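Course assignment 3, question 2. Fill in each field.
Student: A.L.
Task: Predict the tertiary structure for the chain below.
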Amino acid sequence: QVQLVESGGGLVQAGGSLRLSCAASGRTFDNYGMGWFRQAPGKEREFVATISGFGTYKDYADSVKGRFTISRDNAKNTLYLQMNSLKPEDTAVYFCNCLTTINVARTPGNYWGQGTQVTVSS
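Answer field:
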């Protein structure tokens, strides 16, 4: 069983920054790629970013490329998402996910955190 706990969400003005964290337990962290996904009201959950087990490879959705940075600290079993130049359309609940592969992947695995709300005001 994998436990994922997100934190760091909040209310920010357009152009601002936030850093999300996801603390993981219950599995050897660096054996698995990790991902961030988000879900806006009335929309399906969508891929945001993914990172391989040792952090070598990263992949981003086009909508966040150049503004968001995914990273991980395997010594702390923690995943991060640095979000800069935030836009109102980034408003969503953000979820971290443990993938089924050590590589990057846009397809989520079975384990989700509870999510953290990010609201960007215009």
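Instructor remarks: The mean pLDDT is 96. The CA atoms of residues 21 and 80 lie 5 Å apart.
Grade: pending
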